[in-house]
């Protein structure tokens, strides 16, 4: 363990971002990642007012020229500068629901940990989230092949530290989409990112099926009740991928419904190579 910490020193805590923004009096129940009833425009206005200390003007962001950092069903991520700080700006599609967007922002205001991507603020028009700018994702790194076991251990400790923090909050935050694409690489280690479908949980969540198939816990696949333990399952799959340098279930010609059913029924797990296990133990 000492060799790992000497080669990859653990970072000191980042500068505090200020106290979490209180949710009381917003008129909206944000727990479990959903609203209990359809919010009114007044509810949305109250919630936005609670968040106003983190709201910034879109025209104060200077975007870099060149290709975007990524894009998907949510929208697009581009690099830029805000308040003389390099930032990544996640711009959501215009059709994104106001309350869904503000719920994600509210959740990010609660988080302040060196293993989680740093949140700076948000804009309402257009809807975007401003975060620290990091390099590549863990997925990009894994495209070059498996990682050395000592680095895997360092990275595993980084992700575990971030998850422990999220799961210790009150109410707990369950990420619900932990995978290499949502883990970013910084100079001092890894950061957990993308809280778009994360949820605040007390006890167990309702049976909401969400996430990415090959990293999803069986109980989530089956839309059963689940807790933060679903993140731990996803973490195990990510660890497997770091050590193997391949996507889970890569041996399948087609990752279809049959494989999803087998995973959900706990009949299939990624296969551990005996040779890999033995070499990892030696290192």
From TrEMBL:
Region described as Disordered: 1-25
Say yes or no: keyword Kinase present: yes
Q: Please tell me the species this chain comes from.
A: Amorphochlora amoebiformis
Question: What range(s) does the Protein kinase domain occupy?
Answer: 63-283
Q: Which family does it belong to?
A: Belongs to the protein kinase superfamily.
PANTHER family named in the record: MIXED LINEAGE KINASE DOMAIN-LIKE PROTEIN, SERINE/THREONINE-PROTEIN KINASE TNNI3K-RELATED
Pfam families attached here? Pkinase
**Residues the record lists as binding ATP:** 90
Protein name as catalogued: Protein kinase domain-containing protein
Matching InterPro entries: Kinase-like_dom_sf, Prot_kinase_dom, Protein_kinase_ATP_BS, Ser/Thr_kinase_AS, Ser/Thr_Kinases-Pseudokinases
* An example Gene Ontology molecular-function term: protein serine/threonine kinase activity
* The keyword Translocase belongs to this UniProt entry's keyword annotation: no
- UniProt keywords, alphabetically: ATP-binding, Kinase, Nucleotide-binding, Serine/threonine-protein kinase, Transferase
């Amino acid at each position: 363990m000492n060799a790992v910490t000497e080669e990859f020193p653990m970072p000191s805590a980042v500068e505090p971002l200020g106290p979490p923004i209180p949710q009381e009096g917003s008129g909206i129940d944000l727990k479990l990642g959903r609203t209990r009833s359809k919010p009114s425009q007044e509810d949305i206005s109250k919630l936005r007012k609670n968040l106003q200390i983190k709201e910034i003007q879109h025209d104060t962001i200077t975007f870099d020229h060149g290709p975007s950092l990524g894009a998907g069903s949510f929208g697009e991520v581009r690099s830029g500068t805000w308040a003389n700080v390099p930032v990544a700006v996640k711009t959501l599609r215009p059709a994104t629901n106001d309350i869904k967007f503000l719920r994600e922002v509210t959740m990010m205001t609660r988080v302040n940990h060196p293993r989680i991507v740093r949140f700076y603020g948000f804009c309402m028009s257009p809807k975007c989230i401003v975060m620290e700018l990091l390099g590549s994702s863990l997925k990009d790194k894994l495209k070059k092949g498996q990682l050395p076991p000592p680095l895997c251990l360092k990275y595993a400790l980084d992700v575990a530290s971030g998850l422990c923090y999220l799961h210790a909050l009150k109410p707990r935050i369950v990420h619900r989409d932990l995978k290499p694409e949502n883990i970013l690489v910084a100079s001092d280690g890894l950061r957990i990112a993308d809280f778009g479908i994360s949820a605040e949980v007390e006890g167990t969540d309702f049976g909401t099926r969400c996430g990415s198939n090959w990293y999803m816990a069986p109980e989530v696949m089956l839309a059963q009740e689940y807790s933060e333990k679903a993140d731990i399952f996803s973490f195990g799959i990510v660890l497997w991928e770091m050590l193997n340098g391949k996507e889970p279930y890569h041996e399948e010609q087609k990752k279809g419904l049959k494989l999803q059913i087998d995973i959900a029924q706990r009949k299939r797990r990624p296969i551990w190579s005996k040779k890999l296990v033995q070499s990892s133990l030696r290192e």
